[in-house]
């Protein structure tokens, strides 16, 4: 497989600064940590590790030593301040750091300093060879905050009073000649000399060092063993132990719910319920959850923001909250009078109204689940009710006065999906977008960029500039740059090789789902493997499997059928008009099918929409698997109406489909009992083009599309994967012949 010329991998937390990554976010943002709790990442960055414990490596002490100054309060009110003392030696008495930084870009260093028995200090960048004019430097009197000397190669500098005699000293400069720098903190004697005979009784205080890119000093961010690079590495908590999903690079969003985790008082109206504070830790492991405690009334028991939240009609919103089961194990949202229900003990979604265009439930750790529902607002304000219930859909009942469910962290955002939680107080709060820019490889004039998120990948072709990541609610896993001159046809192979399909069940029979602009319903034997979706692919990628004896419940009167299929819901195809079908198919390795003349194994079919009196007949256009890898296409037609005798099927085309290999197909079909047309391209090559044939029956409405596996009983297991299934009757898909959609 072709190697990238530059790679970024976010599937492991990094403890090292990467000079090809630029990150910025101006506010806090939440994420799930490796400890299984919700955390709130600070704004800004600090490229220094051990920003407060100045006595340990990689800090370097030269003719000086650092001890704890626990009796001196640090600027944050803690006892973490350090004391820098001199040694009894002639020379410099300093504390230093060095690190790799981007050459040619502004860099800001800062540290909190306070006078002790020494009040004069020199602060400078290190590595003079990295700067035109040597180390950018200031000399400062900590007794007054007055600068005594400043070098000319500084962009800016300041000393900000931080209370109790502390000064936050900032220097900004550009390392224009090299990529190694850091900073020095020199103690000066009473004559402002840098070299002198030291005294162990001479000292000053220091705390809170920071190195960050850019022209401005931002809020101080403490670090321990690792630098803080700003990126949020988000963990999924649904397994036995937290699993790192990748880095969150999210768009801006606003939580419109005031007092999102303070549910007492007038901002929350209660109906036949109260919200007592509990001693059960919330998802962040620091604060505590509330309980929606039901009264003894025979009614619904819920809470609702007061006043009702303002929305914009026609815009999409997502409502979410953290729940934990107590005496009640079901909870619900009621949005504008319509409900969705959640099993908050097992983490599943129950009944829901069609108003909700999407819904989700995620494990938030320690028994908590975050539930979400997406809808389109219908007016300038939207009622958002949150309640507990005794079972799925049973929200109105006689309460016992003590039971309920735990609740915390409520959010309403104008977004098509739930994003990370934003905590609020009296007002709505906005989480700024994450801005992440990756430097393009210096060795390439143009690059193709492959990005893989937790839910799939995509390619950006022929980029010759630095690459700003697109924001998403889904975690980023890798970003690879490839030389555009050599990659050409390998995009799909790279995506498949790096991230093989990760399939999960689509659910029980009768589930509806969308592929492009079409809605499908499932018909399966309700096995976990019957119909599955690849959750790590951006393209619609599904897998169907049928084992011997697996029968859909709808076939209970006809045991001579085995199936796992999708069928197009309420979308009949027109007659006498071009219908286009485009899809990729991979038949998984397995046994050859030995079929009797009456046996069949369809992998796709256009099924007639039968009129009253018609006999159930073979597909008007059907794709069969025979033997090991033979793919045959048959058509059926009749002009008799109603038809009571099953028409004969005619073989129109045949080709070999190598098992384990994707094959791209495009078909143009014209349904007509007398003047039909069929054209088929496989992997860009035309295999058949016939016209003036019969395809279909004289029904009132045209046929509909089904795909998956539909067969007569047989002992062999058959498994097939489908990708990028498109059906169009108003738009040509001819471009897919030479430019098929990628499987990524």
What topology emerges from the helices and strands here?
Layout: E1 6-9, E2 21-24, E3 29-32, E4 38-41, E5 60-62, E6 64-68, E7 82-86, E8 90-92, E9 94-100, E10 107-115, E11 120-125, E12 137-141, E13 146-150, E14 156-161, E15 166-173, E16 180-187, E17 195-197, E18 203-213, E19 232-236, E20 243-248, E21 253-255, E22 268-271, E23 273-274, E24 277-281, E25 288-294, E26 298-305, E27 309-310, E28 316-324, E29 330-335, E30 338-343, E31 348-352, E32 356-365, E33 368-376, E34 381-382, E35 384-389, E36 396-398, E37 404-413, E38 429-431, E39 435-438, E40 447-453, E41 456-463, E42 467-468, E43 476-483, H1 484-487, H2 491-498, E44 503-505, E45 512-515, E46 518-523, E47 531-534, E48 541-546, E49 562-568, E50 578-587, E51 601-607, E52 621-626, E53 630-636, E54 649-656, E55 663-670, E56 672-682, E57 685-695, E58 704-711, E59 718-728
Antiparallel strand pairs: 1-43, 2-39, 3-4, 5-9, 6-7, 7-18, 8-17, 9-16, 10-15, 10-18, 11-12, 11-16, 12-13, 14-15, 19-20, 21-38, 22-26, 23-25, 24-25, 25-37, 26-35, 26-36, 27-34, 28-33, 28-37, 29-30, 29-35, 30-31, 32-33, 39-42, 40-41, 40-43, 44-47, 45-46, 46-49, 47-48, 48-59, 49-58, 50-55, 50-59, ...
Briefly characterize the structure.
The protein is an all-beta fold and 744 residues long.
Written account of the structure:
It holds the Pfam family Polysacc_lyase. InterPro entries: Polysacc_lyase (IPR025975). The protein is 2% helix and 48% strand. With 744 residues, the chain is an all-beta fold. It has an eight-stranded antiparallel sheet with strand order 44-47-48-59-50-55-56-57, with no helix packed on it. It has an eight-stranded antiparallel sheet with strand order 45-46-49-58-51-52-53-54, with no helix packed on it. A hairpin with a 1-residue loop joins strand 55 (663-670) and strand 56. 43% of the residues are buried.
């Amino acid at each position: 497989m072709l190697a990238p010329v530059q790679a970024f991998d976010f599937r492991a937390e990094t403890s090292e600064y990467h000079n090809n990554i630029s990150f910025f976010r101006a506010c806090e943002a939440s994420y799930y940590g490796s400890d299984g709790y919700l955390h709130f990442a600070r704004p800004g960055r600090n490229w220094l590790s051990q920003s407060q414990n100045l006595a340990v490596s990689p800090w370097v002490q030269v003719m000086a030593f650092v001890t704890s100054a626990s009796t001196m309060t640090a600027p944050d009110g803690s006892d973490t301040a350090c004391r820098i003392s001199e040694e009894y030696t002639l020379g410099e008495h300093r504390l230093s750091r060095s690190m790799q930084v981007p050459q040619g870009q502004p860099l800001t260093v800062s540290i909190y300093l306070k006078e002790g028995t020494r009040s004069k200090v020199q602060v400078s960048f290190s590595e003079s060879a990295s700067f035109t004019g040597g180390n950018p430097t200031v000399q400062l009197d900590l007794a007054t905050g007055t600068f005594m000397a400043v070098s000319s190669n500084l962009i800016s500098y300041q000393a900000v009073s931080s209370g109790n005699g502390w000064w936050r000293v900032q220097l900004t400069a550009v390392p224009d000649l090299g990529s190694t720098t850091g900073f020095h903190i020199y103690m000066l004697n009473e004559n402002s000399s840098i070299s002198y005979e030291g005294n162990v009784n001479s000292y000053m205080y220091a705390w809170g060092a920071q190195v960050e890119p850019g022209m401005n000093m931002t809020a101080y961010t403490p670090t321990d063993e690792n630098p803080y690079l700003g990126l949020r590495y988000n963990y999924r908590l649904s397994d036995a132990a937290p699993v790192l999903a990748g880095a969150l690079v999210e768009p801006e969003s606003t939580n419109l719910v005031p007092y999102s985790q303070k549910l007492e008082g007038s901002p929350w109206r209660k109906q036949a319920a109260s919200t007592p504070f509990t001693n059960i830790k919330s998802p962040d492991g620091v604060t505590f959850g509330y309980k929606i405690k039901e009264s003894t009334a025979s009614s619904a028991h819920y809470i609702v923001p007061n006043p009702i939240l303002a929305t914009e009609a026609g815009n999409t919103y997502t409502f979410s909250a953290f729940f934990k089961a107590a005496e009640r194990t079901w909870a619900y949202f009621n949005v504008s009078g319509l409900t969705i229900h959640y099993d908050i003990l097992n983490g599943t979604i129950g009944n829901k109204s069609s108003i909700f265009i999407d819904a989700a439930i995620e494990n938030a750790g320690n028994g908590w689940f975050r539930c979400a529902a997406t809808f389109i607002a219908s007016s300038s304000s939207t009622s958002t009710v949150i309640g507990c219930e005794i079972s799925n859909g049973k929200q109105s009942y006689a309460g016992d006065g003590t039971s309920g469910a735990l609740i915390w962290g409520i959010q309403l955002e104008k977004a098509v999906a739930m994003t990370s939680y934003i905590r609020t107080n009296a007002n709505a709060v906005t989480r700024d977008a994450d801005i992440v820019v990756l430097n393009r490889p210096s060795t390439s004039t143009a690059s193709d960029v492959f990005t893989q998120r937790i839910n799939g990948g995509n390619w950006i072709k022929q980029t010759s500039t630095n690459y700003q990541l697109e924001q998403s609610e889904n975690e980023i896993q890798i970003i690879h740059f490839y030389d555009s001159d050599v990659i050409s046809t390998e995009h799909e192979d790279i995506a498949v090789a790096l991230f093989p399909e990760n399939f999960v069940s689509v659910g029980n029979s009768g589930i509806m789902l969308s592929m492009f602009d079409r809605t499908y319903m499932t018909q399966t034997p309700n096995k976990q493997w019957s119909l599955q979706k690849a959750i790590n692919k951006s393209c619609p990628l599904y897998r169907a499997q049928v084992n011997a004896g697996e029968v859909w419940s709808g076939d209970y009167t006809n045991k001579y059928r085995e199936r796992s299929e999708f069928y197009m819901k309420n979308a009949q195809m027109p007659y006498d008009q071009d219908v286009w079908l485009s899809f990729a198919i991979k038949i998984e390795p397995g046994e050859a099918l030995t079929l009797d003349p009456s046996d069949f194994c369809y992998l796709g079919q256009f099924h007639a929409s039968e009129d009253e009196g018609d006999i159930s007949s073979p597909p008007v256009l059907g794709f069969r698997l025979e033997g090991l890898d033979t793919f045959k296409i048959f058509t059926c037609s009749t002009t008799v109406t109603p038809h009571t005798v099953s028409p004969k099927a005619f073989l129109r085309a045949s080709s070999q489909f190598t098992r384990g290999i994707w094959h791209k197909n495009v078909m143009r079909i014209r349904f007509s009992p007398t003047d039909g047309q069929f054209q088929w391209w496989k992997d860009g090559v035309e295999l058949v083009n016939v016209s003036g044939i019969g395809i279909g029956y004289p029904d009132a409405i045209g046929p509909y599309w089904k795909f998956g596996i539909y067969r007569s009983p047989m002992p062999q297991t058959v498994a097939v994967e489908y990708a990028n299934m498109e059906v169009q009757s108003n738009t040509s898909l001819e471009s897919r012949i030479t430019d098929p959609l990628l499987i990524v």
